[in-house]
Design brief:
Layout lengths: L2 H13 L4 H6 L7 H16 L8 H11 L6 H13 L4 H11 L4 H15 L7 H13 L4 H11 L7 H5 L7 H14 L2 H6 L9 H20 L1
Helix pairs in contact: 1-3, 1-5, 3-5, 3-6, 3-7, 4-7, 7-8, 7-9, 8-9, 11-13
Length: 226
């Protein structure tokens, strides 16, 4: 059974009247973590796609890009997105349950938030309502405000790309410490590490942009230090 069939089964249970808590409780095994991750992005992504007043073809396409949907799974993926979009529950309810599901795993919550930023920027415009949505999700996830600002800086085209913010350091941080932070980020964002913490294989290409941003930031900082 593909991940999309498993996701569709879970969201169909939601549509049939099961609570989000009941569905997530069945997704606690290591094998189902990738399903839980995907549902989290689907649920919040479908709701965020309406934050700017409409669900555009670009945003739906961006959702598909996050997961690299195979041709044979397209129908199932569309069903999943539409089920989540039609659910009447508020996004904060989803965000809070997702936070509980991945309690003590800020890296996974950060992965989720990054997927949402990718969807938000699909149409090339970062809408103020999307900004408010993502900032509120960050708060519910109890991630540092610096994480939100770093992601917004990396994705929003009008934002100055400060390499120190990308790495989570400051210009005053000792060079050896900056190097350690860079190496740690490279390890944490290796595809194997992402899969281990629940990111579906269909979505690990999210790491490609992140790794490019991390390495570009390091190269820029290293050039200044040399």
């Amino acid at each position: 059974m593909s991940i999309w069939s498993r996701i569709s089964d879970a969201l169909s249970a939601l549509a049939a009247g099961e609570s989000l808590s009941q569905v997530f409780d069945r997704l606690r095994s290591p094998r189902e973590r990738s399903v839980a991750f995907a549902i989290a992005v689907i649920a919040l992504g479908a709701k965020m796609a309406k934050a700017d007043g409409q669900v555009t073809r670009d945003e739906v396409t961006a959702f598909r890009e996050v997961f690299h949907i195979a041709a044979q799974d397209e129908a199932g993926a569309a069903k999943v997105f539409n089920l989540a979009r039609q659910d009447v529950a508020g996004f904060e309810v989803y965000a809070a349950r997702i936070k509980a599901m991945f309690s003590g795993e800020p890296e996974t919550l950060r992965d989720l938030l990054e997927g949402l930023f990718h969807i938000a920027m699909a149409d090339g415009f970062y809408h103020p309502n999307e900004d408010a949505f993502l900032e509120r999700v960050t708060e519910v996830f109890e991630l540092p405000q610096a994480e939100f600002k770093a992601l917004r800086m990396r994705f929003a085209p009008e934002t100055h790309q400060d390499p120190y913010t990308v790495l989570g350091v400051t210009p005053d941080t000792p060079p050896d410490e900056i190097r350690k932070v860079w190496r740690k980020l490279v390890r944490e964002n290796h595809p194997d590490a992402m899969i281990a913490r629940g990111v579906p294989e269909e979505a690990v290409h999210l790491a490609q942009k992140r790794m490019a941003d991390i390495n570009r930031a390091w190269d820029e900082i290293a050039g200044v230090m040399s």
